[in-house]
Recover the amino acids of this structure.
């Protein structure tokens, strides 16, 4: 039996934002082939550094890992776009320093997850969030660049949530930074296609949308 485990933040742990409706993990379970199962270890609010706390909860019989993390790291850096800068270049330099720190943390975290020896798929952070400002969207692009580059170097597949969750209905009316049941269904569909269709033996990055 194949066992898909979801790690990360509230992109997967979204039950409280879709009351009375199926959260992402349940939508994944419904879409998986007969004989497959899914488990949630992702935790709402977690950042890249918190993934170490989730790994001991990964079931021993896990066969596939899917990771969505980085959104809260970017959210925590959102104040950067409101800091004064004398020039655009100066502002970009400050952003670059933040991204360099995120790059080190994300790469180190990914090595730790890969050390479990299980097929891994990672997700980008969606950027069509209704309350996101243009400047914040540009900054988020830098975080996504880190995620994509790190995945390519590691040779692992990517689910690009930026292309998947593009409509206002994809976001919860209770919290516009969380996936709704509509967005969750799209995310779950991409997860199922990635874990059932990707050849993890190739160490080749394929982007699923």
């Amino acid at each position: 039996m194949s066992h898909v485990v979801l790690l990360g933040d509230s992109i997967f742990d979204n039950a409280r934002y879709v009351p009375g409706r199926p959260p992402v993990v349940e939508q994944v379970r419904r879409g998986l082939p007969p004989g497959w199962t899914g488990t949630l270890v992702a935790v709402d609010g977690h950042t890249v550094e918190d993934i170490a706390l989730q790994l001991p909860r990964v079931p021993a019989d896990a066969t596939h890992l899917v990771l969505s993390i980085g959104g809260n790291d970017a959210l925590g850096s959102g104040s950067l776009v409101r800091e004064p800068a004398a020039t655009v270049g100066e502002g970009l330099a400050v952003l670059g320093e933040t991204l360099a720190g995120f790059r080190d943390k994300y790469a180190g975290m990914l090595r730790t997850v890969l050390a479990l020896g299980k097929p891994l798929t990672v997700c980008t952070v969606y950027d069509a969030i209704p309350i996101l400002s243009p400047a914040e969207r540009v900054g988020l692009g830098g975080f996504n660049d880190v995620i994509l580059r790190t995945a390519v170097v590691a040779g692992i597949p990517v689910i690009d949530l930026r292309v998947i969750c593009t409509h206002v209905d994809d976001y919860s009316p209770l919290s516009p930074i969380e996936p709704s049941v509509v967005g969750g269904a799209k995310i779950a569909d991409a997860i199922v296609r990635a874990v059932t269709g990707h050849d993890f033996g190739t160490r080749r990055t394929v982007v699923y949308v």
Remarks:
- The mean pLDDT is 92.
- The helical segments are 24-31, 51-54, 71-76, 88-114, 134-154, 161-164, 181-197.
